[in-house]
Design brief:
Strand 7 and strand 8 form a beta hairpin. The protein is 53% helix and 11% strand. It contains 20 helices and twelve strands. The protein is elongated, with a radius of gyration of 30 Å. By secondary structure, it is mainly alpha-helical. The strands form five sheets. A three-stranded mixed beta sheet has the order 5-7-8. A three-stranded mixed beta sheet has the order 10-11-12. A two-stranded antiparallel sheet has the order 1-2.
């Protein structure tokens, strides 16, 4: 559930975030009303008043503590502070990544880098608890506290945070709610949750508030300021870390505050920044204004690379040469005369070239091949998928006689490819890409003949252009 929410909110280019927010607003309002009614009905700690919100364990109804409504302001301030720290973290991280790319470390240097940081972290993990020793009485052996250099029956707080195995036990110690630890294995999640929980706990101790609540709030805000997801992160922290649905309102407040501040200072999350660095064309939900304001049509934004079309009866030699010249193409439009009948994938073409029994001579060209020649079934065509045959090996297996033969592509084409009229709006093209999750869109003329294609990267260029214009306006 949590991974599906995270993927939809951060990684899906054809999911409506606005619809998700409407659902969350409705469910949160319902939950809050239910909490208030439940609090009025079930008198806790001298009765429910307008100043407190009681917290209970999910499924047990066991009262834990209560949060004053004025503490929501403290929660928001923690979110603002986490937004500042998170945006700085993203910018520093991306600058370091760019620096490492420019330096172009060799593999031995990369190995030395890993060894250096491993030794550094191991040294700090051992030396910091020695330098700052705070011993506490161990009243909960099940929490796996670490004694380190403390007397028997006591534990070292900092050693427990840094040296607990697995590392997520330290996160549970900062939350101190008895919940199960996180199971997410990531280089960002656990460190940021650690830092955020320590940050929130420190503020709570400074203000004399409840540490475990603010440890959860700080962890959620710090992670949200970096990854910029609010809904899924709230669910992850609630379900995985605490089991306290009553914390939903404080967590939503701090996450929204953290994301708002971070977006003002650094528009993109760390994942979006990394997508930009790797030049992966991820389309945002909102259509770039350049596509709407310039009154562009689909023909105006077609890809500059040529559209390679194949006849339904193609010569083997021509097909091999096409694959050699345009090997980066994933699929090719197929025409029967002037009529566009579909597209065929490069993988299928390589499989067909490996079955010489499908070849026929020029004398049979144009005849009824369905009755005189066998065709491959879909299971035969996909038998080796996803392993794609090597073009060089396929070409080497072909003789001169094979190269003079022909191949019928009609039985293997995808007969319902996504197409778009050349005079259609570019804005609609962008919407189709997002809602259908397309990789390419063939543009056709008034006679339904393919004249070009619009690729995801062509639309992504307008998104980048809009982003650079916004950066220039901010700089000015």
């Amino acid at each position: 559930m949590k991974k599906s929410l995270f993927a939809m909110e951060e990684g899906a280019s054809y999911w409506s975030i606005q619809l998700m927010w409407k659902c969350v607003n409705a469910s949160t309002t319902t939950l809050l009303v239910w909490f208030l009614v439940d609090a009025v009905r079930d008198t806790v700690s001298g009765g429910f008043g307008p100043k407190t919100l009681p917290l209970k364990l999910a499924g047990y109804g066991q009262f834990i503590t209560e949060v004053h409504y004025w503490e929501f302001a403290v929660v928001a301030v923690i979110g603002f502070a986490a937004g500042l720290i998170g945006s700085a973290f993203v910018e520093i991280n991306i600058r370091l990544t760019k620096l490492r790319r420019r330096l172009n470390f060799s593999k031995p240097l990369q190995l030395l880098e890993v060894i250096f940081f491993t030794v550094l972290m191991a040294t700090l993990t051992w030396c910091l608890p020695l330098a700052y020793t705070v011993c506490r009485v161990d009243n909960a052996p099940a929490m796996q506290f670490i004694q380190f250099n403390c007397p028997d029956g006591q534990y070292n707080e900092l050693a427990t945070l840094l040296q607990a195995v697995p590392s997520t036990y330290g996160l549970k110690h900062t939350f101190h709610s008895g919940a199960d630890a996180f199971t997410i294995q990531s280089l960002i999640f656990i460190p940021l949750l650690y830092a955020g929980s320590c940050f929130g706990r420190a503020i709570a101790l400074w203000l004399g508030l409840k540490p475990f609540i603010y440890a959860v709030v700080g962890a959620s805000a710090m992670l949200c300021s970096v990854v910029r997801v609010v809904i899924s992160l709230t669910v992850i922290v609630l379900v995985e870390a605490t089991g306290l649905p009553y914390l939903m309102i404080p967590l939503l407040i701090t996450n929204i505050a953290a994301r708002s501040v971070a977006n003002k200072l650094s528009k993109s999350s760390i994942y979006e920044k990394l997508l930009e660095l790797k030049d992966i064309p991820f389309l945002e939900e909102e259509t770039p204004k350049a596509l709407t304001h310039r009154m562009l049509h689909a023909r105006d934004i077609m890809s500059s690379r040529p559209l390679v079309k194949l006849p339904s009866e193609v010569g083997v030699a021509q097909l091999v040469q096409t694959l050699k010249d345009y090997g980066s193409y994933g699929e090719y439009p197929v025409l029967h005369g002037d009529q566009f009948i579909g597209v065929i994938k490069q993988y299928d073409l390589l499989i067909l070239l490996g079955h010489k029994g499908l070849f026929y001579s020029e004398a049979d060209k144009g005849s009824d091949l369905q009755s005189s020649h066998r065709t491959l079934t879909h299971s035969e065509l996909r038998r080796t998928y996803p392993d794609k045959p090597n073009l060089e090996e396929v070409e080497a297996s072909l003789t001169e006689e094979d190269l003079s033969c022909y191949l019928d592509l009609a039985p293997y084409v995808q007969i319902a490819p996504s197409t778009f009229d050349a005079h259609g709006s570019a804005e609609r093209t962008y919407e189709l890409y997002r809602t259908l999750g397309l990789r390419s869109l063939i543009v056709v003329d008034n006679n339904a003949r393919p004249i070009g294609e619009v690729r995801r990267r062509d639309l992504y260029s307008f998104q980048q252009e809009e982003g650079s214009e916004k950066m220039k306006m901010k700089a000015a």
